[in-house]
Amino acid sequence: MGPLLHQRYFLLFYSIFFVTSLPFARSGDAEALLALKSSIDPSNSLPWPQGSDFCQWQGIKQCMSGRVIKLVVEYFNLSGTLDEKSLNQLDQLRVLSFKANSISGEIPSLSGLVSLKSLFLNDNQFSGFFPSSITSLHRVKVIVLSGNKISGKIPSSLLKLRRLYVLYLQDNRFTGTIPPLNQTSLRFFNVSNNQLSGEIPSTPVLIQFNSSSFSHNLNLCGEQIGNPCINHGPPAPISPVPSSSSKHSRRAKLIKIIAGTIGGFVLLLIFLCLLWIICKSCRRRRKSREVRRSKEVGIETGERGEPSGGAAPSGRDSNNGRKQGGFSWEGEGLGSLVFLGAGDQQMTYTLEDLLKASAETLGRGSIGSTYKAVMESGFIVTVKRLKDSKYPRMEEFRRQMDMIGRLRHPNLVPLRAYFQAKEERLLVYDYFPNGSLFSLIHGSRPSSGGKPLHWTSCLKIAEDLATGLVYIHQTPGMMHGNLKSSNVLLGSEFESCLTDYGLMSFRDPESVEEPSTSSLFYRSPECRDPWKPLTQQSDVYSYGVLLLELLTGKTPFQDLVQEHGAEIPRWVRSVREEETESGDDPPSGNETSEEKLGTLLNIAMACVSLNPESRPAMRDVLRMVRDARAEAQVSSNSSDHSPGRWSDTVQSLPREEEHLNI
What we know:
- This protein has helices at 2-26, 28-40, 84-88, 244-301, 351-356, 394-405, 437-442, 455-473, 517-522, 536-552, 560-564, 568-582, 591-607, 618-635, 646-652; strands at residues 60-64, 67-72, 95-97, 104-106, 118-120, 125-127, 142-144, 151-153, 166-168, 173-176, 188-190, 195-199, 219-221, 337-339, 358-364, 368-374, 380-386, 415-421, 424-430, 488-490, 496-498.
- The chain is built from 15 helices and 21 strands.
- The longest helix is centred in the middle third of the chain and has 58 residues, at 244-301.
């Protein structure tokens, strides 16, 4: 009877435990969120009602399969502390932001957030030490802890985060030295306004950041801040009587240094004097030639003319059509390299470094030519040399550069600096070694044709491009203007990044040069005339054409809308079927593939509507793409990937999940 009684008690206990645990299993994230709210929100500022769908609560930016993916609770004046247990139960979080609140105490262990990619705890009242648990989260890309009271050392274990993209630790109380960060993925870095000391490591990554990233650390030294470190070396043995030979040696060295400095200065003065004499002589000869030429022109035309004085820009003389002089920087100066992005890192190279760099042509377009510039230090940038150096005027050009330079987004190639002078305009961007989307689709030989990408790759690229365009369109009056596959570069993790945005306003509307045929067919019909102003709706059209290029592998060598009209979906499917029948990529054979292909086609067709008013806004396009991708990630299975596809590689790479207000 005893064992039977024990069995009944065990079954009763198991039933009670199982029944009571079911609600938690169904709503584990909801319970964790409410427990977290009780710890950080003593004043009940967060409107999170119990019993409702927690995915609709304010600050829950994204859910997937009933789990919280993005938690962004900002500017709510939260004043409690973070509860470690409830926070770590949200193990599917990719983006966590408590920015601009008043949360205090130490940052607890976050070791349970194994999916976390972006962490924003800036502008709070956090104290204690740097949470070392973050360095064990190998997917983390963005760490923003600025504007707190965190002290102690910056841990060297940050080197383990090989995907680190943003590290902002400014305005805290950190002490000790800066770890020798060497992640090539690191693009944004700031440790200013702390109590750091010692030499800034001269790693290839940290050497690219200028003084603004390290300022207001009194005991810090290094090349980046123009404060060289004095290396005293080991102390010399104490001797009661200094050696006379050592004194003589030091005196001799000092005399040599002084003599060498004076000699070098004198040689420099002599060189400058000779250069001035040569330039003056050349200017005098050039002026006399122009006087003689003016007189000859006056004799030939029966007119009297006075020389204009100084060299004119190269071009045709208005009198007789002959070339007149070259061009001169005289009176204008060489200009200067203007770095952009306030609060962003600024590179430590100079205009002289840029001019000395070895250049390799990457491409030529209607706006200008693009070069890969490798500096003597080994640092690489992309330089675009604009064709038209006179339009728009310098002041308008400067304003446009400042506006473009403020744009910072993971799906944009950042404009780092610009240079302008009388006959020259250069734009400096980050160098992207993985090439362009055009090369990805069409290979190194565009004439051989391309292959349509797998629908999973199309969805990822479509979301990247839409995200970047939405960010651009948030700036009033700003649009890309020249969206095409060759203006999409692939980042370090094959994320798609837009380049050449905002540059079409630099084309002189009176220019007779026509854009290339391929570029023309990306552009919406209402904006193909050069004097017609570009619009954001034109970007939407270009996005639709680019989406069709992804799906078919065909460049827009013809006007797709005029050629195929309402038959575009049937044409796309026939192209894809033809490729899969003749190539190595068999169709996946499931309904998910057809469904997602249909979704992408519907989005593309809406974007290429001939009526601009009928096209959706980019924000709506982004929402549709994200919905389709979220459904695909839930409904697709592992058998829906064919071996050897680039899409399989891309799908295995993490996307940038940085929190952005878009």
